[in-house]
Write a structure and sequence with these properties.
alpha+beta; globular
């Protein structure tokens, strides 16, 4: 149970860091702002992409992302 609480907290921290980002951002930018692993950050990015909230602007290790709409 405790690990699921920590996991949810990490996801929320990543989503907040993304919401607080202006313009394009990279995984490394979110890593500096949110106490989460790179794997968790990537999972949240995939989830937010599938919900139509963000999109990648490139591919690979240094790919940037941007928010869509009023996010």
């Amino acid at each position: 149970f405790l690990s699921s609480v920590n996991y949810r907290h990490e996801n929320e921290a990543v989503e907040k860091a993304i919401a607080d980002s202006a313009g394009e951002f990279r995984v490394a930018d979110i890593e500096k702002k949110a106490p989460a692993s790179v794997d968790t950050i990537r999972k949240v990015l995939r989830d937010m992409k599938s919900r139509g909230l963000i999109e990648p602007t490139g591919r690979g290790r240094n790919a940037a992302w941007r928010k869509l709409g009023n996010n």
